Amino acid sequence: MRTRLVLSSARLLDPGTGTFLPQTALAVAEDGRISALGEDREIRGLADSGTEVVDLKGAVVTAGLVDGHLHPVSGAELTHGLDLSHCADVADVREALAGAVRELGRGDWLFGWGLDPNVFGDLPVGVAPFDAVLEGVPAFLLLFDAHSALASRRALELAGVDGPRTFDQASAEVVCDEHGRPTGLLQEDAACELVERVAPQPTREERRDRLAAALRAMAAAGLTGGHVMDANGESLALLAELDAAGELPLRLRVAPWCQPGTDAEGVRELIAQQGTGGALWRVDGVKLFMDGTIDNGTAWLERPDCHGESTHAFWPDPAAYTHVIGELHRAGVPTATHAIGDAAVRHALDAVEKAAAAGGPAVRHRVEHIETVPDDTLHRFAELGVLASMQPTHCCDFTRADHTDNWSRRLGEERASRAWRCRDLWDSGATVVLGSDWPIAPFPPLGVMAGARHRRPSRDLTLPPHGPEQALTALEALRAMTVNAAYASNEEHEAGRLALGHRADLTVLSADPLTTPATDLPDLPVTLTTVNGRVTFRAETTG
Question: Which residues contact 40 (CB under 8 A, 6 or more apart)?
């Protein structure tokens, strides 16, 4: 078999051991797998006229970095518009909106994203502070968690939303004041969709181009793969189109949603969908929700938050969720459950335990987010073989060490001190997988690993860390985006390590990520990214 790619003059970092291999070069065969490891001259001798040969000049090669939780298709759409993530208070938001309104044509919609509820301080989260700026303007402003949004008065009017509604999603809500008038705050997808469906939609070509651009940016950041936690709308068709055109620069594992109200036929359809895909993407798993978010009061907590909220599961009947988990488990389908609050996490683990006790194949289920859990929950992940999928940059950027942020104030000191227990879960024997949850937080994987290590706000690294005792080591953070990500996909035999026969999904960095200080890691240059032995990103200085 001919050689597709040769990387020479390299330092080969095995994330399994955290040590450099004695060899300095590797070759990739036409099938996209590592076919040889050796010295430069020996490996260069395997090249022919059609082989791409890259002299890395001492750069560090490691197994490709994989984001354990992201939303590329919806993210590419949601991040098109006014970026509000930099706004620190209501005045900042008002100024940003005013500038955007001046650029609008008559009747145009204003879309914004990344709005942090902390900007409201002690004020209720609603559109009222922006009424004067948005008068007559249809606006839809997505909050950073992507589980809630603000709609302007004009947008609510166009959507015919003039009071409370009832939804299948138990935590979905059109938030209203004491007189029954909408405040502009829409909780969860079902409520947001009331306004979204009357807003102008991008064309298919625009969706495709935005997705392709987002994926290219991910490859440039060093990502070789991602675990995609949705397959809504045209997602799968767009991925298939890019894949067929050779424009898919990441290997994607997709988990379609299973929402409350899904009947037996719907579950059968999800099971039948498993394994479908293309060269670089496949459907593998099902995503479910057990709750919403702490910041908007829709998480499921064992005790209410300080506002008396976050008391209900996402599924009106949690037993129906348990039943679905059992059906998917018996079919050998891995599940990924969004569970943020302690009650949600406990119920998700209970459901897996019940499913496993009933028999069936060994299945690697996951719980996503796990933002706060008590001590008696930690050990159950390892005991049940449930993976802990976490996003440490959420802790870094949306909470504060002094617990004055919205998330912490809602939970109170006891539960806020249990924020994102990455260290405790790791030490309990759980397999921890790290991701960004983009577009909720930035996707660059070096930033994700850095956040797991320093736990400081990325906007100001001089601020104190939130729960420094929960930090991971440099090697653990790397393993969580390589070795553990491969294990989560049941692919540890062919991915996540630098080894003969493993896929040549590789991330090349200008220096050793294990010795680079955590606060400097996000700025470490990415030299080269390959997927299946094909270059998906090359820095201009790379030969």
Answer: 8, 9, 24, 25
Q: Are strands 11-14 and 65-70 parallel, antiparallel or unpaired?
A: unpaired
On whether the CB atoms of residues 337 and 367 are closer than 8 A, the answer is yes
Residue 439 CA to residue 239 CA, distance in Å, equals 18
Bond before 439 cis per omega within 30 degrees: yes
Half-sphere exposure of 203 (CA within 13 A, CB side): 3
The set of residues, in sequence order, having a beta carbon less than 8 Å from that of 58 and lying 6+ positions away, is 9, 10, 11
d(CA 399, CA 81): 25
Q: Which domains does the chain possess?
A: 81-197 (3.10.310.70), 255-493 (3.20.20.140)
pLDDT tens track, the chain, 543 positions? 899 999 999 999 999 999 999 999 999 999 999 999 999 999 999 999 999 999 999 999 999 999 999 999 989 988 888 999 889 899 999 999 999 999 999 889 999 999 988 899 888 899 999 999 999 999 999 998 888 999 999 999 999 999 999 998 888 999 999 999 999 999 998 999 999 999 998 999 999 999 999 999 999 999 999 999 999 889 999 999 999 999 999 999 999 999 999 999 999 999 999 999 999 999 999 999 999 999 989 999 999 999 999 999 999 999 999 999 999 999 999 999 999 999 999 999 999 999 999 998 999 999 999 999 999 999 999 999 999 999 999 999 999 999 999 999 999 999 999 999 999 999 999 999 999 999 999 999 999 999 999 999 998 999 999 999 999 999 999 999 999 999 999 999 999 999 999 999 999 999 999 999 999 999 999 999 999 999 999 998 766
Longest dimension (CA), the chain: 79
3-state secondary structure of 197: coil
User: 257-277 in b/e burial notation, b at 16+ Cβ within 10 A?
Assistant: bbebebeeeebeebeebbeeb
Neighbour-count burial of 157, counting CB atoms closer than 10 A to its CB (0-12 exposed, 13-18 middle, 19+ buried): middle
Contact, 454 vs 477, CB < 8 A? no
Instruction: Please give the model's pTM, rounded to 2 decimal places.
Output: 0.91
Do residues 493 and 187 lie in contact, with contact meaning Cβ atoms separated by under 8 Å?
no
**What's the CA dihedral at 206, 207, 212, 213 to 10 degrees?**
60
